[in-house]
Amino acid sequence: MPLFFKPGGLLRQYIICLLALCLIQPCATAEILQADPQTYRQLLKTLQAGDSLLLAPGLYKAGLPVHKLLGKPGQVITIAAADSLQPPVFQARRGHNTVSIIDSGYVTIRHLVLEGRGLPVDAVKAEGHARWVHHITLEGLVIRGHGNNQQTVAISSKCPAWDWVIRGNVIEGAGTGVYLGNSDGSDAFVGGLIEHNLITNTLGYNLQIKHQKKRESVDGMPDERRTTIIRHNVFSKAVGNGQTEMARPNLLVGHWPLTGAGQDDLYQIYGNFFYQNPGEALFQGEGNIALYNNLFVNDLGDAVHIQPHNDVPREISIFYNTVIAAGTGIIIRKPNADVQKLAADYPQRVLANVVFAEVPIRAELLSGNVTGQLSAAQNYLNKPLARLGERDLRPRAKLTAKFDPASMQNYLEWNLGLNGDLRQAGEVGAYGGSQGTLYWVPSVELKPPVLSR
Length: 453
Fold this sequence. Notes:
By secondary structure, the chain is mainly beta. Helices cover 6% and strands 35% of the residues.
């Protein structure tokens, strides 16, 4: 009689040992599959948790349907270039979004070129008829040719979405760069990480995250407090803007749900470079926002608008930024009288910034800011008005002021300057710490604005 049929509990011990081995090492072996333009569509359908599909160089004309692909924590499904130096090129086709995502999770898409050909289709879209799309990583994509109109989007989510990572992508000349959530406030985007991207010359927003009416009741959708992080990106609208009446900020973030799950969610937006916008402010936001350690340069208008959009600004912390603007540097606009009391319940602090603008700051709760007219910037900063690539916004000598840093200390990397150095007491503006070799001169290229430790 085989061992596992013998009496005395050996069967139970065998099963326990077998289960333990499966927990240590998955019973199903992950596969690495090689594909080319002729074979990839068929192989896509076979992908299981932990599998990788490596795509040979070439022209792919049949899109990339990521439909019902389900990885697991620690067993992500990866779709990537076999050689990142020779990325596959996916060519847009009429009537189909190029990377179409439906009911998928724990999927990484890496090192592809998405060529829009001027067609009115999106490059990457979590489709509106999907139930959900979660734990998606989009990394190292080059997205171009998606500027047919302002509603043509490079990366878009139109269904409940959470825990996305959008990292290290280049988006050039799209109608809208990244648009997350539905225009009516439904289909929330929750808990994202958006970092090290270069988004330039869009007709509309470089990036917009929509307001949220409520947090959807979807299996797996987080209901605890979450943070969306937007860091170390370059957002530029120096050229390519749409018509004046359709002008949009480089980045706009909407409010969180007003009640229930998600109402205390937070944006942490830091270490970014915002560059030029002839028709709108560089940044606009409402809800709960921490905006810090950023460089804002707008020789054509305003920099930072905190103002009512679909609701009102709530808890706002604006600190350690360096701002150069021909118009207004930072403004927190008061909401209408009927919601004044609501806004008064949330602190809205502006402290330890360096702002040179026609109107430097308009806000109430101010502390430790160094401000002046735009013409005075060169007295305090190295080369504040030079051309791009030479414009150096570091202080000529250490700039300090008196302020209480207690309200900053709950935020990621709050005590590091844009150059990556530990801040010294009382320093203001985006740059802090050493004046030595670690610093970043603003430029419009895929290069992290922070030198990470």
